[in-house]
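Board notes (copied after class):
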Amino acid sequence: MTKLPLTIATTDYDHFRDIRTGAVQPEGIDLNWLLLGHHECFARMTAHREFDLSEMSFAKFSTQVTRENSDLIGLPVICSRLFRFSSFYVNRKAGIEKIEDLYGKTVGSPEWAHSAAVWMRGWMQNDVGMDMTKIRWVQAGANAPGREEKVELNLPDGIEITRVKDKSLSEMLASGELDCAIIARPPTCFLEGHPDVVRLFPDFLEREEQQYADTGVWPIMHIVAMKKSVLEAHPWAARNLYAAFDESRRRSVERILDPAVSRYPVAWLPIYARKMQQTFGKELFPFGIEANRKTWEMMGLYTYQQGIAHRQFAPEEIFPDTIETKVII
């Protein structure tokens, strides 16, 4: 029988390795896998729907999946998930010592619909109780000028964003034009050791561990988006893809827990991974709806509050209802 040919674009993840190489195969599907940088995946899928499936920023996906008659659906397959207290960089001359000191300051991010910034603005608004209208917001490329917002926004009343096309966040942070940047990758000025650029939270690891202990939420940055036309024409495809992705993930976790050989060039990594099981559970990096429900729901709230999603969504609305059908023998 001829297999269903589908093209997928993602960056390189170990937990996708076995499905990408064909060691794990989704039943009835032949994947043409393109390894691209994740920003290229986002841009090409967002602008022109070039692929059947693609890695996509969770924030940008939330805009597109909540449009009326959306042509996208998600798979609860997690490409990337990271805590983000490490993502606040400040110019020490701005006198910012705690998060509330951002009131009246100029704060930049690469895009408003930048998942790392969405998560931390959500924390600021909902956990700290801050008023986002009392901050001057700037959007610019992280380390190079010219980056633009990729999705439409419906900004809350009182929120204004200044778009800067000819400078980067790194340049402006180093010069003092920006007081703070919320950014996924460390800005170049920080990596090069600029004396005035520091992390707002040098104790970010302890803060992130406490946040997870308090909320059970492990922020999700990127997921896999699929053209809804694929699901409509082949209702079985989503479940078969999900099963293969999950098996690939399981094998990746198995590799990282194996203490017999140096599968990764980092000392004590299996020991650290087993320690992480005490925090995150046996699955270590779970896919699926129920295992991540709190996280899906929190992003649904944050993206709606921040004018990125058109409406607040529940997980059942953005993933196929076939994904977690129980099969009991």
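Comment from the instructor: The chain has a mean pLDDT of 96. Residues 81 and 219 are 6 Å apart (CA to CA).
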